[in-house]
Amino acid sequence: MERVPILRIGKTLLVTIQIDLQDDIVMQLQEDLAEQIVATSATGVIIDITAVEIVDSFIGRMLSAVGSMSRLFDAETVIVGMRPAVAITLVELGLSLPGVRTAINAEKGLRLLNGRT
Amino acid sequence: MDDLPIKVSDDIVRVRQQVRAAAAACGLSLVDQTKVITAASEIARNALVHGGGGSARIEPATSPAGRAGVRITFSDSGPGIPDVGLALTDGWSSGNGLGLGLSGARRLVDQFELETQPGAGTSVVVAKWSR
Q1: What is the separation, in whole angstroms, between the first and last Cα of chain A?
Q2: Is the pLDDT of residue A98 over 90?
Q3: Do B97 and A58 touch (CB under 8 A)?
Q4: Mean pLDDT throughout B71-76?
Q5: Which residues contact B26 (CB under 8 A, 6 or more apart)?
Q6: Residue B120's closest CA among B67, B54, B32, B73?
Q7: Around A88, how many Cα atoms within 13 Å sit in the side-chain half-sphere?
Q8: Cβ separation B108–A60 shorter than 8 A
Q9: In percent, how much of chain B has pLDDT > 70?
Q10: CA atoms within 13 A on the CB side of B61
Q11: How far apart are the first and last CA of chain B?
Q12: What is the three-class DSSP state of B65?
């Protein structure tokens, strides 16, 4: 099974999703992130979904879950790079991604996290 | 086009890819493509998780008003949906989702027909038309 790589930059974990998200990969990423946040004492997680063409309720639920979970480890999650068409669809679907913050791009996401400390 | 099987979670990704190709081919806007792909993803997962697997037929179609579009027919031979009204209610879920699967998918498409009988499976037909 493919895995989404998790990069560490200082106290931040960076996840760039560049594959078509299959349900198993989504579940695995959630587990990997939990482990990595604890292992690295990260205070922030950036999930870059620039390349993600659709976010359905399953993927949306994972993003929210990562946000809520990271908070239990005193880390903040920022979703960056959401495509306009994805945002429009999410709203119509009824998903508001509770528990996560969003930023236009990775740079602004990093700034958001750094402003926190 | 042949029916695409929905047997494993990989198949949901394949359904999405085929719907994307069909939606682009019939001239749907990027937003409308995204909406119909997302709806297809929800319904395909429903067929897999609740219907025990099924199939999807993706085909070009024309609306009554003569607009080009894409139509997708999902069928499964699962237990059926006992209370369709409830299943189409936001927030109601029989599984571990957010309960947005069917109700959310319905909002994303232009045509939505659901047929189900307890014990006889479920079929969902959705269509999205170009503007």
Answers
A1: 36
A2: no
A3: yes
A4: 96
A5: B60, B68, B69, B70, B130
A6: B54
A7: 13
A8: no
A9: 92
A10: 18
A11: 24
A12: coil
CA distance B62 to B64: 7
- Would you state the pLDDT for residue B84? 80
- Residue with structure tokens 């070009």? B60
What's residue B97's pLDDT?
A: 52
Q: Do residues B15 and B43 lie in contact, with contact meaning Cβ atoms separated by under 8 Å?
A: no
Token digits of residue A66: 């990562």
Say if the Cβ atoms of A54 and B16 lie within 8 Å.
Answer: yes
Cα torsion angle, A3, B7, B96, A57, sign = positive
Smallest Cβ–Cβ distance between A58 and the set B10, B37, B45 belongs to B45
DSSP codes of every residue in A10-75: TTEEEEE--S---HHHHHHHHHHHHHHHHHHT-SEEEEE-TT-----HHHHHHHHHHHHHHHHTT-
Amino acid identity for residue B90 in this structure: D
Going by C-alpha positions, the residue among A1, A26, A98 that lies closest to residue B41 is A26
pLDDT at B91: 64
Per-residue burial over B86-113, b = 16 or more CB atoms within 10 Å of its CB, e = otherwise: ebbeeeeeeeebbbbbbbbbbbbbbebe
Residue from the list B9, B30, B107 with its beta carbon closest to the beta carbon of A93: B107
CB-CB neighbors (< 8 A) of A55 in chain B:
38
pLDDT bin (cut points 50, 70, 90) of residue B98 is: very low
